[in-house]
């Protein structure tokens, strides 16, 4: 069973927080702490998080074998598509080709609503 909860950035699982902070450093995004609008953490087969700022989304994942995934993109260029398993986030990820990533969010999720709102705002600034 997959469970997604809204969580304070400071309360993220330490493995996820290290991945987000390292990703921000690698891509010269600066310290995200004061810019985080909302954060969600998902526990299921994998442990993952979505971190939302006014202009960016950062997604990190840790698999049971210790392998990890780190993605980040500007919200202005992101598109969303709902599916049975959640929402596909399609973006030009920093340092990677454009692709889609499945966030396990249900319609009506607070994080999904915030993500939609921030994408629209980012496109109009």
Can you characterise this structure?
There is one protein chain. With 125 residues, the chain is of the alpha+beta class. The protein has a single domain (3-123), classed as PH-domain like (Roll). 22% of the residues lie in helices and 37% in strands. The chain is built from two helices and eight strands; from the N terminus they run βαβββββββα. The strands form two sheets. The protein has a five-stranded antiparallel beta sheet with strand order 1-2-3-4-5, sandwiched between helices. The protein is globular. It starts with a strand and ends with a helix. The model has no long low-confidence stretch (mean pLDDT 94).
Strand/helix succession: EHEEEEEEEH
> Main sheet: which strands, in order across?
1-2-3-4-5
Radius of gyration: 13 Å
State the total count of DSSP E strands: 8
Structural class: alpha+beta
Q: With helices defined by DSSP (H or I, 4 residues minimum), what is the helix count? A: 2
Shape: globular
CATH class: Mainly Beta
Number of domains: 1
Report how far the terminal alpha carbons are from each other: 39 Å
CATH architecture: Roll
Give the helix proportion (percent range).
Answer: 10-25%
- Residue-averaged pLDDT, rounded? 94
CATH topology: PH-domain like
Q: How can the largest sheet be summarized?
A: 5 strands, antiparallel
Low-confidence stretches: none
Range of strand content = 35-45%
């Amino acid at each position: 069973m997959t469970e997604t909860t809204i969580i304070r950035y400071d309360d993220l699982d330490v493995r996820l927080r290290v991945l987000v902070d390292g990703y921000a450093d690698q891509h010269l995004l600066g310290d995200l702490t004061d810019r985080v609008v909302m954060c969600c953490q998902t526990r299921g087969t994998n442990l993952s998080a979505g971190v939302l700022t006014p202009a960016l989304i950062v997604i990190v994942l840790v698999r049971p074998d210790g392998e990890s995934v780190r993605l980040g993109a500007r919200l202005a260029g992101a598109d969303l598509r709902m599916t049975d398993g959640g929402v596909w986030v399609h973006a030009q990820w920093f340092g990677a080709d454009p692709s889609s990533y499945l966030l396990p969010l249900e319609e009506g999720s607070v994080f999904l609503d915030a993500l939609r709102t921030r994408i629209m705002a980012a496109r109009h600034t």
